Amino acid sequence: MTRPDAELPAGNVDALIIGAGHTGLAISHCLTELSVDHVVLERGEVANSWCYERWDSLRLLTPNWQSRLPGFSYSGDDPDGFMSMAEVIDFIKKYAEVIEAPVRTKTTATSVRYEAGQYHVTTNKGEWLSNAVVIASGACNLPAVPAVGDNVPNGITAVTPQDYGNPKQLEPGGVLVVGASATGLQLADEIQSSGRPVTIAVGEHVRLPRIYRGLDIQWWMDKAGILDESLADIDDIVRARNLPSPQLVGSRDKQILDLNSLTALGVTLVGKLVSFRDSTAYFSGSLRNVCALADLKMGRLLDSIDEWAADAPECAELERPERFERTRVEDSPALSIDLEKNEIRTILWATGFRPDYSWLDIPVLDRKGRVRHDGGVVESPGLYVIGLPFLRRRKSSFIHGTEDDARDISEHLSKFLKTRNTA
Question: Are 296 and 400 members of one domain?
Answer without folding.
Answer: no
